[in-house]
Amino acid sequence: MNESILITGANGGLGKEAARQLALKDGTKKIILFCRNQAKAEAAKKDLEEKTGRKIFEIIIGDVSDEHSVKKAIEKIKEPIDAILLNAGGIVGKTAGNITPSGMNEIAATNVLGHIILVEELIKRDQLKKAVLYVSSEAVRGVKQMGMKPALMKTSSVEEFAAVLDGSYFGKKFDNVQAYGYVKYAATMWTLAMARKYPALKFVAVSPGNTDGTMAPDNFSPVMKFMLKYIMMPIVLPLLGMVNKIEDGTKRLVDGISDDRFKSGIFYASKEGKMTGEVVDQGTFFVDLKNNAFQDNADEAIHRFIN
What we know:
alpha/beta
């Protein structure tokens, strides 16, 4: 049982719902809402207290795309944390390809940079006690129904992963939707590498599946945003069995960090060709996930961008 849990991106969507579900679990004593906006964090805290009847929520402000912001936020963590749910991220939008001060493009910095710093700094301080869950995506192994190709690389070398993180891998035409799958793949491989580095801790990657109630549609063009938000997600995809309710998608994450059936060093997502339902080990059909050298290459590439 995890008594204290930190959740990044906890003011809305999956992060906020995870905070709600975890607060209702017996034994949960503290949930840290790691958010970049104070006003949104305060509103989420108030709503969560009302919905759960519990005053166990604390706020720490930090931007996971900014190394200095994350390190400053870590200084506010005074007590050990049992578990971390690395949830903040997304497709980002028009600025996804812009280079940040870290050297990573914005989509990589948002989904990868601060999470790695947060976890590794807490390990150095002996403040992380049990588990880390990285919120990955079905996009890693590809979503044919949504036109997303698998994040398959030619060599999965350090140089290739680094090129994904700075955007040069994609050439002149940067497609944030396709880049998202590759960025999530890099972070997932880091997670699996960490499971081998720190066998006393549980490191697991879990996809919530294609889930409604998130802010993902906001990162698309106005036309696509309208289609996703008001037609595809609420009407078309549910009829086809291709979308989870946010409660169900989030339960995957809560189970992943709480349930011993989810084993360290594995990426869990929907069955091949599915986006909802039962989760399975993705390494059974996306074999690159099981390659220790590829995992270590992703880890090394990520650290090229961290001071």
